[in-house]
Amino acid sequence: QLQLVESGGGLVQSGGSLRLSCVVSGFTLDDYAIGWFRQGPGKEREGVSCISTTYSVTYYVDSVKGRFAVSADNAKNTVYLQMDSLTPEDTGVYYCAAGENSAVAHPFFEDGYEAWGQGTRVTVSS
Question: Which of 1, 2, 53, 67 is the most buried (most CB within 10 A)?
Fold first, then answer.
């Protein structure tokens, strides 16, 4: 059974940083890609980043390029999302999701992911 647990969310001032973690179990990061998604207040959920350690690729939505960095520690079965220069527009609930490595063909297509975490809330104050 694929399981993902996010942590690291919280309240931060604009310009600050947070690092989110996604601990996975029931599978290895060699076999699955991990996507990060977020849903802001009154907004639809959107893809933020994606990583495949098998293909050694990462993806970012334009709005976070240069500010966010995704990485993985296969030995710890953990994926990280380092978020810097945060703005109030980054506020939302952040989810990690697991999909087969083929998901990286469309990294922000939610149907490509088969398991989701419960989410961690990020609030950026102005």
Answer: 53
Q: Which residue carries 């690729």 as its tokens? A: 57
Query: What would the two tokens of residue 80 be?
Result: 């990280």
Beta-bridge partner residues of 57: 52
Is the Cα dihedral 123, 116, 98, 3 positive or negative?
positive
CB 98 within 8 A of CB 4: yes
Residue stretches of the chain with pLDDT short of 50: none
Residues found in the chain: 126
Report CA 91 to chain centroid distance, whole Å: 14
C-alpha Rg value of the chain to the nearest Å:
13
Which residues fall within 8 angstroms of residue 9, CB to CB, at 6 or more apart?
18, 20, 93, 94, 120, 121, 122, 123
The residue to which tokens 């990020």 are assigned: 122
Q: According to the model, what pLDDT value does residue 101 have?
A: 87
- pLDDT for the residue numbered 105: 86
